[in-house]
Design goal:
By secondary structure, the chain is mostly helical. About 70% of the residues lie in helices and about 0% in strands. The chain has 17 helices and no strands. The chain starts with a helix and ends with a helix.
Length: about 375
């Protein structure tokens, strides 16, 4: 075996060991949550499905759980939960185990995406750790009422992976599954577009070729068509294409857009700094902008590797802004951390992309001092 072949084999072995270790560690850290039991919202949702099992199918043509209090449309996720209810009944831990296993699977998928986007193996690993152990995740992983969040994230991450693999039909099918689980996935086509733009900016040859660009147009058109069809279906079922909580519907008024922007800034701040004190998010936004500019300088001087890392840093920030936008009406805190579950993949991408940039910057700094 050649030296290059041995190095590749060692890298693959290292990746496998890391993924297995991270999956086991993630499961072990969240395992105590299996003893949590049911909470108030869990009882409300499961009791509704228990009293009217047909709701699992009726959700496809009407509002979630046949309620007018919120404008949710989650038929596929509800169907999965109904199947769990039929099997598990009134025992809480199996529901939580399913969500924990889904989270572990999401961590593995997230790692595979990061490994594909980032040229540095350790960068992908740091990003995967950031996604696996994000401090806001317990509300999604260990809370049965957050079932739609975790299931939709699985579909969305699979869609991203299949998109990167050049399987647009499969990616579109996964996108549709995610849309039927959770409203947040409606912004995924925009996130995929931003991701491909960043890949091109970073010098990814597989997407910069003219034939690849022509194919990408058709792929993205299919994603947007799926999202628009979902909005039409949602309007037929609920009477509104967008919505959810009434507080969000109120902020859709153009007069309230400034407040919506503030809510987005606050949510982004708490995504990276989950605390309850008054949010200094304008200063954090200024610091983030300055960090991006410094990273751009480092990337420019570092060549291709730095350029790719900087582009992925931008992609991670864009993912955070786009995926958090549907929840800009509410402050993100540990108690509603499920809103940030899928969004935190952007944090993972940004964390992973920052590693090679920091390495390049420190390397140059040490070199100058020497």
């Amino acid at each position: 075996m050649t030296r290059g072949g041995r190095e590749e084999t060692q890298a693959m072995t290292g990746d496998r060991v890391f993924v297995v270790a991270l999956a086991i560690a993630t499961a072990g850290i969240y395992a105590p949550g299996l003893a949590r039991g049911f909470c108030s919202e869990d009882f409300l949702i499961l009791r509704r499905l228990w009293e009217r099992p047909s709701l699992a199918w009726e959700n496809f043509v009407g509002p979630w759980l046949d309620t007018s209090l919120v404008s949710f449309y989650r038929p596929l996720a509800s169907l999965v939960l109904q199947a769990e209810l039929t099997i598990f009944g009134a025992v809480a831990w199996p529901y939580l185990l399913v969500q924990l296993l889904a989270h572990v699977a999401n961590v593995v998928i997230a790692w595979s995406i990061l490994r594909r986007l980032l040229s540095d193996a350790w960068a992908a690993r740091w990003g995967a750790i950031a996604f696996a152990l994000h401090p806001l995740h317990p509300n999604a992983v260990s809370f049965i009422a957050s079932f739609a969040t975790v299931f939709a994230a699985s579909a969305a991450l699979v869609a991203v992976r299949w998109h990167l693999d050049g399987r647009p039909r499969a990616a579109t099918a996964a996108l549709v599954a995610g849309l039927l689980c959770y409203e947040q996935v409606a912004v995924l086509p925009a996130a995929l577009l931003a991701l491909d733009a960043a890949r091109a900016l970073g010098g990814d040859r597989s997407i910069r070729r003219s034939a690849a660009r022509r194919s990408a147009v058709a792929w993205h058109a299919a994603y947007w068509l799926a999202a628009l069809s979902y909005l039409v279906l949602r309007r037929l079922a609920l009477g509104a294409s967008v919505g959810g909580y009434r507080s969000f519907q109120e902020r859709l008024d153009p007069a309230a857009w400034l407040e919506l922007t503030r809510g987005l800034g606050s949510g982004l701040q708490r995504l990276v700094w989950p605390q309850v004190a008054p949010e200094p998010w304008p200063w954090i936004a200024l610091g983030a902008a300055l960090g991006v500019l410094i990273a751009a300088v480092v990337a420019r001087r570092a060549g291709g590797r730095g350029r790719r890392a900087w582009a992925m840093l931008l992609a991670g920030l864009a993912w955070c802004a786009l995926l958090l936008a549907p929840f800009a009406f509410v402050g993100i805190v540990p108690g509603n951390g499920r809103y940030a579950y899928l969004t935190s993949f952007g944090v993972a991408l940004a964390v992973g992309a920052s590693r090679p940039l920091l390495e390049l910057a420190l390397g140059r700094l040490v070199g100058r001092r020497a």
